[in-house]
Amino acid sequence: MNPAVPTLAPSILGAGIAEGLLLRPIRYPWAYELYEQAVANTWFPHEVQLGEDLADFSRMTDEEKHAVTFLMSYFNPNELLVNKALAFGVYPYVNAPEAHLYLAKQMWEEANHCVAFEYVLETFPIDRQRAYAAHVDTPTMAAKEAFGVHYIARMTEQTLDITTVEGKRDFVRNLVAYNVILEGIWFYSGFMVALSFRQRNLLRNFGSLIDWVVRDESLHLKFGINLVLTVLEENPELQTQEFADEIRQMILDAVDLEERYNRDLLPHGILGINADYINAYVRYLADRRLEELGFAAHYNASNPAKWMAAANDTLALVNFFEATNTSYEVAARTS
């Protein structure tokens, strides 16, 4: 009788082409459940009648129009930057097919969001060339982009050795930069500003479009945090105080970048909202993301925009270095 072949513990990381070619049995139910919900959430930008918002846009102040244009200038290229982070920095290094299914749907959603923001630029009387150039010409916007590019550069310049501790750290850094910071703090900050117009009965259809984007992004955030925690649980060698401090500092540095950016977004403020208000919300978001990764809140900030709470469901808290699989389950099926 042949001796038993030892079975390796399952790992969500792996770069073998022949790995992850069978969906069943599903090893990470949370990934497949998020995939099913993402499919159920499928939508298309032109289903929203943005033309009905033109009358609102025409009577808005220059400062209000600037805010909408500024947001589109940031969102448009950064949706595609997230796609690069997924394609180069996540998908090639994950071997669970259920995770690949979700990532494929997420990449489609990022493309769909880009088309949605193009639709806004096409519909509203916005100087599109100026909007396109802003992510390069506006220093605070360019600084945020450079922050993200720094983390994806490692994956685009050469193949990541996911078997090494440093390679795994780079994988986690990229996830934190894009899923937690860019999508979970920076995007949510912009969503709040975009949806603030509907709070004043303006741009209601634009607000509906943003609702659909937020619904997608909430799943992106859940997937990203679950993936970070899974990698940490399966790779205890990453669980050092030094690495924890680095991840925490990444989030705090990102808050500083966002606060400066928001002063360019609303240099003088508009009715009911100004840069200080947005930045208080940014600090609240950062505290929630820190807690979702198992850290203590840093700013102890209250939520100034409680009307946004429905878009900010807090995940079950799991310590960054004591991740347990039981907290990953997500009630993802639609009723």
Automatic annotation (TrEMBL):
Pfam families per UniProt: Ribonuc_red_sm (PF00268)
Q: Tell me which domain of life the UniProt entry assigns to the organism this sequence originates from.
A: Bacteria
Q: Iron: is it a keyword of this entry?
A: yes
Which catalytic reaction applies to this protein? a 2'-deoxyribonucleoside 5'-diphosphate + [thioredoxin]-disulfide + H2O = a ribonucleoside 5'-diphosphate + [thioredoxin]-dithiol
Gene3D superfamilies in the cross-refs: Ribonucleotide Reductase, subunit A
Alphabetized InterPro entries for the sequence: Ferritin-like_SF (IPR009078), RNR-like (IPR012348), RNR_small (IPR033909), RNR_small_fam (IPR000358)
Task: From the record, give the transmembrane residue ranges.
Answer: 175-197
Q: Which UniProt keywords apply?
A: Deoxyribonucleotide synthesis, Iron, Membrane, Metal-binding, Oxidoreductase, Transmembrane, Transmembrane helix
Give start-end ranges for the coiled-coil region(s).
none
Cofactor(s) listed in the protein's UniProt record = Fe cation
Q: An example of a Gene Ontology BP annotation on this entry?
A: deoxyribonucleotide biosynthetic process
Q: How is the co-factor bound, per the entry?
A: Binds 2 iron ions per subunit.
Q: Where does Fe cation 1 bind?
A: 79, 110, 113
**Molecular function via GO:** metal ion binding; ribonucleoside-diphosphate reductase activity, thioredoxin disulfide as acceptor
Q: What is its EC number?
A: 1.17.4.1
Q: Where does Fe cation 2 bind?
A: 110, 183, 217, 220
State how it assembles. Answer: Tetramer of two alpha and two beta subunits.
In which family does this protein belong, per the annotation? Belongs to the ribonucleoside diphosphate reductase small chain family.
Tell me the function of this protein. Provides the precursors necessary for DNA synthesis. Catalyzes the biosynthesis of deoxyribonucleotides from the corresponding ribonucleotides.
In its UniProt entry, what is this protein called? Ribonucleoside-diphosphate reductase subunit beta
Q: What organism, scientifically named, is this protein from?
A: Intrasporangium oryzae NRRL B-24470
